[in-house]
Amino acid sequence: MNLEKRSRVILALDLEEKAEALALCEQVVEHIDGIKVGYPLVLASGLEVMEELRVLGKPIIADLKVADIPEISSRICRRAVESGADYVIIHGFLGRDVVESCSKVARVFVVAEMSHPGAVEFMAPKAEKIAAMAKAYAQGIVAPATRPQRIRELRKVVGNLLIISPGVKAQGGALGGAIKAGADFEIIGRGIYADEDPVARAREFSEALRNL
Ligand code: BMP
Fold this sequence. Notes:
With 212 residues, the protein is of the alpha/beta class. It is built from eleven helices and eight strands. Helix 4 packs parallel to helix 5 and helix 7 packs parallel to helix 8.
């Protein structure tokens, strides 16, 4: 299943209770374009949770931030795909061989630069190089909504590759800021699932992003 730009919201499904996670997804599914499943849910429920989420009809992004030697990284990616992932998020800083080996078994998003403050220390200085390398192998990159200027700069490097961007709301990034800077989708977790009314928030965010 392909990511298609409608609401421009990707839900970061970082809940740890499988039943709660599935219920939340069902409630907000009409307001999101994709579901990102990461370690909190996968470690609690197994990769198989992705198969259960697939019935909702949205692309599943396995956020495993794969970072190992090529042989092991590609095995991890293959396992994720076999478990229902449409895309797998991998790290880029490991080098071309890792990204290439993963791209042979999965459609990948490569983390170019992360959204937390510490990312400026070691990642940001290499992000352009990572993004340029990723162009040959990836469907897209991950770039920080907390620093929209970096999205503008990385967009110039990756051309028409997808940019998915976390850091909205809970981490301080403004809703819509990443998209205005050139991202394709904003990844939102706590801003939706930790809210008292996740459905209202998901609707509100998708309406706002759709109309940008
Ligand atoms: P939240 O909206 O609750 O801050 O969640 C952000 C999500 O995006 C989390 O799943 C986190 O693992 C992920 N993420 C991030 O926050 N920054 C990055 O640079 C890369 C990520 O995958």
